[in-house]
């Protein structure tokens, strides 16, 4: 690959942050420069109270071919990792509190799958080609695929695709739960934004609490998730958004939530 390092684009639309992988001439091959910028974008989404939902997408014909391996050799050998002060886009460290909808198209390999699975909802174009092919490069996936593939698709489906390093299409990805919707090529980003806009009509603190509850169940188990339900609900009842939710119900109008 060339020395052109690529970038991450960001655009605010209302309460939505669009985050784009931007190295289209190289199939959005992921570089350390892009990684730093993606961390910054995710951290901005997490920490900015006016941003309620993120949409991740890839510029050009493909989502991403994954890591540009020659540019990552040193950090892989050192086992470098974050210090927890910023958001980890693959969610193995500090995870983003806000919902993330991911739009994928064309080649969606390795890290591309891991970024998608670290989010919450995945919209795939009908031309998607997926592969978790690290074993063919002498390594194994370290961005969450070995965990979330099993979580989303079950053991057999996960082992089938992880161990064979095969390429599979959008229909198979939907069958095993890696994607939630398949749309015609060119409509994936528009549909992801539509879903993000629907999510953004909800009370943002309640939406975040909903995601947190589900994550708590996955990461800490049933008892921990149940134990947090009532305290979290009590905290939500102390917000202005609850008053607005009740009032809008009485007045039969759309609620205007503020996130406080």
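^ structure tokens above, recovered residues below v
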């Amino acid at each position: 690959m060339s020395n052109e390092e690529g970038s991450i684009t960001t655009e605010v639309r209302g309460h939505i942050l669009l985050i784009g992988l931007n190295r289209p001439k190289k199939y959005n091959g992921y570089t350390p420069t892009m990684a730093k910028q993606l961390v910054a974008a995710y951290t901005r989404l997490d920490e900015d109270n006016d941003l309620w939902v993120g949409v991740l997408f890839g510029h050009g014909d493909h989502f991403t071919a994954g890591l540009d391996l020659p540019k990552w050799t040193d950090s892989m050998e050192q086992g470098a990792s974050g210090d927890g002060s910023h958001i980890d886009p693959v969610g193995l460290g500090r995870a983003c509190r806000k919902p993330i909808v991911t739009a994928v198209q064309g080649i969606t390999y390795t890290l591309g799958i891991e970024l998608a699975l670290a989010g919450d909802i995945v919209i795939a174009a009908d031309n998607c080609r997926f592969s978790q092919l690290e074993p063919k490069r002498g390594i194994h996936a370290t961005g969450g695929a070995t965990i979330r593939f099993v979580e989303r698709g079950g053991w057999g489906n996960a082992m089938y695709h992880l161990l064979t390093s095969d390429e599979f299409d959008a229909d198979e990805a939907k069958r095993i739960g890696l994607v939630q919707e398949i749309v015609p090529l060119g409509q994936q980003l528009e549909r992801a934004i539509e879903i993000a806009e629907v999510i953004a009509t909800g009370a943002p603190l309640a939406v975040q609490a909903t995601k947190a509850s589900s994550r708590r169940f996955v990461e800490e188990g049933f008892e921990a998730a149940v134990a947090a339900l009532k305290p979290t609900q009590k905290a939500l009842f102390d917000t202005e958004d609850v008053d607005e939710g009740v009032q809008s119900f009485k007045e039969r109008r759309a609620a205007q939530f503020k996130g406080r």
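Residues 204-220 form the longest helix (17 residues).
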